[in-house]
Structure formats: structure tokens, C-alpha cells
Design goal:
By secondary structure, the chain is mainly beta. The protein has two domains: 129 residues, Sandwich (Jelly Rolls), CATH 2.60.120; 153 residues, Jelly Rolls, CATH 2.60.120. It is built from two helices and 22 strands. It has a six-stranded mixed β-sheet, with no helix packed on it. Strands 1-10-3-8-5 form a five-stranded antiparallel β-sheet. The longest helix is centred in the last third of the chain and has 8 residues.
Length: 290
């Protein structure tokens, strides 16, 4: 889930997705380039704060959950931790010449529900939290740049049945979905989109292959890979994936569906969406089991 510097300024922004007790959530806090032209990069002191939402009187009551309690691990560029059961804060990396990224992982002791805590930052930082956790039936949208991968979680509950995953890509920019449930992979779409503009011999191929050059493939190795493979992950003669085109579902805009059978009470579905190209756009909607 992404938060802009504007959203994190001042009072901050309530959390847009829930954090589950025992889950590991990594906060990536980016110092973006300065857009004003006054200097090449933003500078100054930077701080990130996670604060439990107070009650209507502006206080923490004895019954207020300890949303800030939990482990803080894998800390990089996040310094001078100050914490209580309701709030924690980090001083962040700052450098006037080079944008800096700070990160840490938070393992909450209790579930942090949607809009249960404020996130805020000083110093003009953007932020991403992975994975993004949502209840089944909630559309998750990504727009505005490459991510390799974006990590999502869907809470399916204990009900068994058929689970339909509806995805939408850009018309000519392919993305790839890999879903894991109950310890097993239940979906791998390969790189898909409605248009074959990034296929062998097509105008968009160079942009696609350039975006993957040197990246680690989910199945191992770095692109370019030796030609071959098994559908839906065929490596073409140039060492990069085949684009699998699809006809959009009737009445939809660049949308298609996949499904798997949920046979036990295991609740969490993990999804990695690989969108290596600048300008990629996609949506993801995991329906509740039927």
C-alpha cells in the first residue's frame, strides 16, 4: 500500500489496509527527488511516526488496544526508535545530495484494523507498506510506476469453495500474478495483457525486455534466461518471457478471471504481482470463497 508525502504530512493519514497480528509488514520510506527545482533532492530532518488513533476525547483509554506493540526488526536507515504500546517513532536517513530510503519491519502483537492508526512523516517522504492486506472482495489497485513485485494478502476466512481472482492490466503493458495458498502455488498467469504489443517482433518488446534486464525471475535465474520453459512461462529466443494475451471478459475493460479451489480453513492467500515497466497499471480482486 502506497502513501504519498502529502498524505503523511501534518496529522498524517489513517492506515489504508489492515495489519494482522503475527504478520511481518515492511515499511519502505523513500526520500523522493525535489520537484521544485530549487535543489536536486529534498533535505532536512526526517521522522516517521505510527500512532494509535485516540478516542473521541483525544486520549488513550484503558481499553484502547496496543496497536503499536510488537517487534521492530530488519531496520535499515531508521534510527533512534522511541516507542510505547500506543505509538512509535523513528528518525530517518537524511542526505542533502542523494535520496535515501529507510526501512523496517513491524510484527504487530494485535490486529491493527483499517483506520486504526495514523502514519505520518516529516521531511517529504513517500512510503510503501508490503504486503497489502485486505479482506476478500476488496479491489486492490496499483498505478503510477513499476514494482517488482507488489506483495498482496487476501483474507479468505475459514469457508471452503471456489475462489475467483479477477485481474485487470494495462492494454499493452503486461504484468504477472503468482498466488500461494496453504503453502502451495495456486496461480501463475505468466506475463499477460490484452495486446501483444510487447511480443516478439512488436514495437513494445524493447521496453518490456529492457525493464526485465538483469532482474531475478521468480522461478530462479536472472533475465535474459535460456529459451524454453513450460506454459505459461515460455522464454522466447531473446531470453525474455512470452506475452500471453487474453480476450477481456465480456462487458469489462481489460479484465480477466482465474480461480482455484479452497479445500480447507486456511485463510490467507498471498499474491505477488510483477509489474516491471514504468507506467504499469493493474487491479486485483479476490472474491470470497463460494
Amino acid at each position: 500500500m502506497q502513501y504519498t508525502a502529502g498524505e503523511l504530512k501534518g496529522a498524517g493519514h489513517l492506515n489504508k489496509s489492515q495489519l494482522l497480528a503475527g504478520g511481518t509488514y515492511t515499511f519502505y520510506i523513500y526520500r523522493p527527488p525535489n520537484q521544485t527545482g530549487a535543489s536536486p533532492n529534498l533535505s532536512g530532518s526526517g521522522y516517521f511516526t505510527f500512532e494509535t488513533k485516540k478516542n473521541g476525547d483525544g486520549f488513550y483509554s484503558p481499553s484502547t488496544p496496543h496497536f503499536a506493540s510488537g517487534s521492530k526488526v530488519n531496520i535499515s536507515g531508521s534510527n533512534s526508535l522511541i516507542e510505547s504500546p500506543y505509538i512509535f517513532s523513528y528518525e530517518l536517513n537524511t542526505n542533502s545530495n542523494t535520496p535515501q530510503t529507510s526501512s523496517f519491519s513491524f510484527i504487530p502483537e494485535v490486529d491493527v484494523p483499517l483506520s486504526g492508526a495514523f502514519f505520518r512523516a516529516t521531511g517529504d517522504y513517500d512510503m510503501e507498506i508490503a504486503p497489502e492486506t485486505e479482506a476478500c472482495g476488496i479491489v486492490q489497485t496499483f498505478q503510477g510506476g513499476q514494482n517488482y513485485p507488489t506483495l498482496l494478502q487476501s483474507i479468505l476466512g475459514s469457508t471452503t469453495g471456489n475462489v475467483v481472482i479477477t485481474v485487470r492490466t494495462g492494454t499493452s503493458i503486461p504484468d504477472r500474478w503468482i498466488a500461494t495458498w496453504n503453502g502451495s502455488q495456486v496461480l501463475d498467469t505468466g506475463y499477460i495483457c490484452p495486446s501483444n504489443n510487447a511480443g516478439i517482433g512488436r514495437p513494445g518488446r524493447a521496453n518490456f525486455t529492457g525493464s526485465l534486464q538483469g532482474r531475478i525471475a521468480p522461478e530462479g535465474g536472472s533475465y535474459p534466461l535460456p529459451p524454453g520453459g513450460v506454459s505459461p512461462n515460455i522464454i522466447e529466443s531473446d531470453g525474455f518471457p512470452r506475452i500471453n494475451t487474453f480476450a477481456p471478459d465480456p462487458g469489462t475493460n481489460d479484465q480477466t478471471t482465474f480461480s482455484f479451489s479452497k479445500t480447507n480453513s486456511t485463510s490467507i492467500l498471498d499474491i505477488a504481482v510483477y509489474g516491471p515497466q514504468v507506467g504499469t497499471f493493474w487491479t486485483n480482486n479476490v472474491a470470497c470463497p463460494v
